[in-house]
Amino acid sequence: MGAAVIAEGGAQEVAFLVDRFASTTTGVTSAIVLSTDGMKLAASMSMQTDQADRFAATASAVYALSSAVGREFGFEGYQQSILRYGNGHVIVTALGEGAALAVITEHDAKLGQVSYEMSLFAQRVGVLLTPQVRQQLRGGLVV
């Protein structure tokens, strides 16, 4: 089996898993996998393409800012940021080197449970995000 076939299968699996995460995790309304340079790699079907692209860009800024603040005070290994609003939350979690999972939740979501589910997702999906799979996802070839 060639690298392109493996990459395509991995890319399809990531796209499927992010959509399933958003639709089955209580309190989560939308989810995306993004590169830390702001590119959407995969998004749940609950997000329109333009909205998902903007969310990837802003979530990468949250990732970068949070990482920079941590480094300023000697903290390494960014893991997660939680932004709380009056009517919902945004949570960004690292997915290994150069990628993250960002979710939007309802205002009454159980953040501890969502964070736990995100960490499980990171363990499962982080290993799938090889350079070949990331390239496949960046190309937008997975629906």
Automatic annotation (TrEMBL):
Coiled coil: none annotated. Residues 14-105 form the Roadblock/LAMTOR2 domain. SUPFAM superfamilies: Roadblock/LC7 domain. Pfam families: Robl_LC7. InterPro entries: Mycobact_SerProt_Inhib_Rv3364c, Roadblock/LAMTOR2_dom. It comes from the Bacteria. PANTHER family: SERINE PROTEASE INHIBITOR RV3364C. This is Roadblock/LC7 domain-containing protein. It comes from Actinocrinis puniceicyclus.
